[in-house]
Structure formats: structure tokens, C-alpha cells
Design brief:
The chain contains 13 helices and nine strands. The protein is an alpha/beta fold. The protein has two domains: 229 residues, Aldolase class I (TIM Barrel, Alpha-Beta Barrel); 66 residues. β8, α8 and β9 form a beta-alpha-beta unit. α5 runs parallel beside α6. The two termini are 22 Å apart. The C terminus is likely disordered.
């Protein structure tokens, strides 16, 4: 069974992955970098090079690229390989308008000839396995996942991760696991399912019921950072303070860290509306830490099997 922490821009950076690895207590998933853009250069930008950093304990590590220019993506894939990536993945699933509307991410699902060109060019330039992540299609009237599977297999892709929604759905509604299961049954390569997995129990059931070879878990980890090893759950208050320490050690500025802390704690405190609003209104890093440190652990409800 393969469990992956799905890449999330602005979330799954090195300090966050370190936190998840510590909280998982030996049951850490396969880690993937944040999205690495190739929009303006063949090679990864300094900002993306920082995002591509990983710990030896995360090996084998996957780096995920997005863009729409085959030559630039091939150059970035080679650089990712040189940086130590064990796998390189092309993102054909990001629904963000600033990505998809420019022909990258899920935008590639509206230009399958370019998807073919990109995969072929990337594959020719690297020795490590090439993965692909995609959605079911642009919208319900243009479901193309069957064609994408054929393309992936024809171009030497070694793993396909399928998010069970269309681009226009974004993260609304429910993932279509029946269609994911149909793709997994047809595929000659491993298919990993993604969408609406908010517990390890649900992950195991999805593997059993839909025949996928693995599960990719994304947004639910913000609601439940212990999701990969529920038996190892620790003090929620201490976990957030540890996350802050990891960011400070990694050179984050206080206001930069504040944004990440709010992002995590807004999910952790969904059952505490008054306190949640209080921390979201914090104007500086010290104010947040004071409020968080004084929170009683008993104030937390424990719906950790519930997430989105």
C-alpha cells in the first residue's frame, strides 16, 4: 500500500513535512514537493529551488512540476533529478485559474496533444520514473480521463494519480470514486486515488473497494495532522508550537510564519468558533503564540476522523 501526502501550494513545504513526519511516528507517507513552476525559465527559479529542498529522511522524494512548455518542463525535470528526486511528477490537475487558464495544471486536459508532447519530452530527458497527476477532465461535458490514461501508458508514465473531480468542480461536491475505480481496473500502470480521503480507515477501504494501488491525501491533513498514524496522536497545542519552531529554524519571518499557523489552526479549531475567530484576528506573531499557548488542551473537540 502506498500513501502519499499530496502536494499543496503554500502548505507542504519543508517545515510542514517535518512536522507531519514527526507526528506520524514511523508511519510517514511518500512526500511530494510543493508545485514547482517552470513558467519563465527552463530551470527552476531560486524560490522553487528553496521549495525543492528535502530531508534525507524523506527519501524517496518526489518533485512535482507544472507548466505548459515541454522544453522548460524537460529542463526542470532534469534539474529535479540532479537535485536528488527519486520521482518527477507532472501536475495536470491544479484547478487554480491563474494556473489552469494559462494552459498549465488542469489546463493541459484541454490540450491533450501538448500533454503528449510534454510527457514525451520529459521522459526522454530523465532516468528516474515519471509520474502524472490529473483530474477527470475540464468539466462534466469533457471527461477525458480514459484518454489521459492511454496517453500516460503510451508515453512511459509509471504512475497515474487521479483526483476524482473536474477542474470546474474545484474542491466542491464529492470525488467520483466509481470512475477512479474504473480507471484503476483498466490501467496497466499503478493508479493512485485522490479526493475526500479524511482517515486511514477510509484510505484502506478505498484501496479495497476501488482497486487503486495507493491513496493521496491532501487537505484533510490540515484538519488532522496525525492522519497517517492516528494511534500516535499527541497534544494539539504542542504540535502547533512545534510547527512554529520548525518554521523559525528554517528561516521564516514572523509574519510569514503567522500566515501558515493561522492556516493550520483555522482547521484544527473548526469546533471552537469563538477561539478560531480570535486567533484569525491576531495581528502579529507574538499575539498568536500568547493566545495559543494559553489554550487548554481540553478545549479541543476530537473529530479527527472528520476532515475535508
Amino acid at each position: 500500500m502506498k500513501i502519499t501526502l499530496a502536494p499543496m501550494s503554500g502548505v507542504t513545504d519543508l517545515p510542514f513535512r517535518r512536522l507531519i513526519r514527526e507526528l506520524s511516528c514511523g508511519c510517514a507517507p511518500l512526500f511530494v514537493s510543493e508545485f514547482l513552476s517552470t513558467g519563465s525559465s527552463v530551470f527552476l527559479t531560486p524560490l522553487n529551488l528553496r521549495a525543492a529542498r528535502f530531508d534525507r529522511e524523506e527519501e524517496p522524494f518526489c518533485m512535482q512540476l507544472f507548466g505548459h512548455n515541454a522544453e522548460r518542463l524537460a529542463g526542470a525535470a532534469l534539474q529535479a533529478q540532479e537535485l536528488g528526486a527519486a520521482f518527477v511528477e507532472l501536475n495536470a490537475g491544479c484547478p487554480a485559474p491563474k494556473v489552469a487558464n494559462k494552459g498549465s495544471g488542469a489546463g493541459l486536459l484541454r490540450d491533450l496533444p501538448n500533454l503528449i508532447k510534454i510527457l514525451r519530452t520529459m521522459k526522454a530527458g530523465i532516468k528516474v520514473p515519471l509520474f502524472l497527476k490529473c483530474r477527470l477532465g475540464w468539466d462534466e461535458n469533457s471527461i477525458c480521463i480514459n484518454e489521459v490514461l492511454e496517453i500516460a501508458e503510451g508515453e512511459g508514465v509509471e504512475q497515474l494519480t487521479v483526483h476524482g473531480r473536474t477542474k470546474t468542480q474545484g474542491y466542491t461536491g464529492f470525488a467520483n470514486w466509481n470512475l477512479i475505480g474504473e480507471i484503476a481496473a483498466r490501467a496497466k500502470i499503478p493508479v493512485v486515488g485522490n479526493g475526500d480521503i479524511n482517515s486511514m480507515e477510509k484510505a484502506l477501504n478505498s484501496i479495497k473497494n476501488y482497486g487503486v494501488k495507493g491513496i493521496s491525501i491532501g487537505r484533510a491533513v490540515l484538519r488532522n495532522p496525525w492522519i497517517f498514524n492516528p494511534s500516535a496522536k499527541t497534544n494539539a497545542r504542542s504540535a502547533v508550537l512545534r510547527y512554529n519552531d520548525l518554521m523559525m529554524q528554517d528561516g521564516f519571518r514572523p509574519m510569514q510564519a503567522l500566515g501558515r499557523l493561522k492556516q493550520l489552526c483555522a482547521r484544527l479549531c473548526l469546533g471552537m468558533p469563538d477561539f478560531r475567530l480570535k486567533i484569525l484576528r491576531c495581528q502579529n506573531h507574538d499575539e498568536f503564540l500568547d493566545n495559543w499557548a494559553n489554550l487548554s488542551e481540553s478545549a479541543f473537540s476530537l473529530p479527527y476522523s472528520v476532515g475535508s
